[in-house]
Amino acid sequence: MQSVLRNMLVGAVFLTAPLTAQAQDTLADVQQDLAVLSVELQKLKRELSTTGASDVTVSGDVLQRVNLIESELARVTAKTEELEHRVVTVAEDGANRLGDLQFRVCEMEPGCDLATIGQTTTLGGESGVPAAPSAPVAGSGTDSLPFEGELAVSEEEDFRSAKDALDEGDFQRAADLFANFRESYPMGPLEPAALVGEGRALEGMGDTREAARRYLDAYSGFPDSQSAPEALWRLGTKLGELGSVQEACVTLAEVPQRYGDSDYVDRAAESRDTFSCQ
């Protein structure tokens, strides 16, 4: 199984390596062009410089060359920024794929502890792009949602419809609505909450295994979200119900370690007592 993990991770790296290498080679070419153009521009500027008073007018041909090179520099600079964005995007996408593979393989590995798998680092290190600050809460409608920020009206309404169905005990409809919501608003700010909601709906339908998968996706994909503590707690309880009591105990023990200020710390402790965790 270790060889399976190694082969899958190596395969994932190879998926992203050609794109990253190609982008880096292109960046190197662009940087070389920039250097050449900068030197040429400096030469022309020296031609325009004088050592004293002179009645000679600089020819329009030279000025035209300067303007042309400056225009080319602007174009190449814009291209460099575009390529930099592509490199960052490829690196982040590769890291997400690796993280997903790690958790999926861990599910198949005997004795693998899901709770101890950390968040995958972006390929190549930190991207250097600061996270955008969350927007202030708009109006009074979003204060009860597990997200602090502005949402599209349709996005909020669709989420509330799914949540209402769950609260009413209409589990099949709730599961369908949450699944449709995630398809309509992929990787949106309410994605982790929708995963937890869908898991709860599946749990109500008696599908414990699929519910556990939704909780795992919510926790592993969004460990810093407001829904992460609940997802980790529910994942632990489902593991116990599926017969993986040892893994359940370890997972539940991670709730106070990772989310000490969460309301789910006490629930995790109660669940550990239920499974007679040491």
From TrEMBL:
Residues 1-23 form the signal peptide. Residues 27-86 form a coiled coil. One of its GO terms (cellular component) is outer membrane-bounded periplasmic space. One of its GO terms (biological process) is FtsZ-dependent cytokinesis. Keywords: Cell cycle, Cell division, Coiled coil, Periplasm, Signal. InterPro entries: CpoB, TPR-like_helical_dom_sf. Its main location: periplasm. Gene3D superfamilies: Tetratricopeptide repeat domain (1.25.40.10). It is found in: Periplasm. Belongs to the CpoB family. Mediates coordination of peptidoglycan synthesis and outer membrane constriction during cell division. This is Cell division coordinator CpoB. The lineage of its organism: Bacteria, Pseudomonadati, Pseudomonadota, Alphaproteobacteria, Rhodobacterales. The gene is cpoB.
